[in-house]
């Protein structure tokens, strides 16, 4: 057994790591007589924007991710997906206007899109996602790639989701779309705005009304620079930034993405803010995989140095 400092999802605490039933486990406590683990303990990180059908998701088992949020896929296929030590939350299918993005994309898995023409079809689609275990509802509002919902229909979908206690996550792309979807009630942007620089007044409004999932590293240079500038000012205004990579959009790692971490640091997130964006799961959860930041301290816990905590780390 070793004494250890760990992050419970909101703050740093003291506990004990031990080998039990062949697994390294953590329990809370303040032991003074035990040797101290060299480093700090975290639960696996959260990637708030992934597409499991577009990657070899089996690679997540044993990675540094303990939770992923799938933001668009075939609900039936996602329902059958399970990974040891990784919590999977899903939005279900993309909800889009008839002919809207990504209904015409070859990469969109079969059965992953629902085209919503009116309030009645919105009721059916939201109910289907809820029945499939959705933890949020995903809508697309990409005016550069096809039709988008009217303001009225978008507000209807937001209200239907709210009736089930779910937030709407919006892919907003094109001039004015990030502003429009948040005004209609979307609580989360699936991508930090990357097609235009938001002015400071809009940044302040967004910081008060919505959170942003970063996805900075997927962009080419120009859009990456726009997105990082927007995130820098959004974070400075008190906005909530969530780590997310759009895993499956190009050759993204099926793990923590160093390029995304680098971009978030460029956007001004220091160690504490970065840890909050990564939202590590509570390591006291019985099924949680445990990570060790060797030699780290609460003030300097670099997520990129995290690795799985093993029995070898408990040898005196």
Q: Can you tell me the residue ranges where pLDDT is under 50 for at least 5 consecutive residues?
A: none
Q: Would you report the number of β strands?
A: 16
Across the major sheet, the strand order is: 9-8-10-11-12-13-14
What is the gyration radius calculated from CA atoms?
20 Å
* Class per helix and strand makeup: alpha/beta
Topology as H/E string? EEEEEEHEEEHEHEHEHEHEHHEE
Described by strand count, sense and barrel closure, the largest sheet is: 7 strands, parallel
Number of helices: 8
- Percent of residues in helices: 25-40%
Strand content: 15-25%
Arithmetic mean of pLDDT: 95
Shape: globular
Distance between the termini: 9 Å
What's the arrangement of secondary structure elements?
Layout: E1 2-7, E2 12-20, E3 23-28, E4 36-43, E5 45-50, E6 65-70, H1 75-79, E7 87-90, E8 94-96, E9 113-115, H2 119-131, E10 137-142, H3 151-163, E11 168-173, H4 177-183, E12 188-189, H5 200-209, E13 211-213, H6 221-236, E14 240-242, H7 258-266, H8 271-278, E15 290-294, E16 307-308
Parallel strand pairs: 1-4, 5-6, 6-7, 8-9, 8-10, 10-11, 11-12, 12-13, 13-14
Antiparallel strand pairs: 1-2, 2-3, 4-15, 15-16
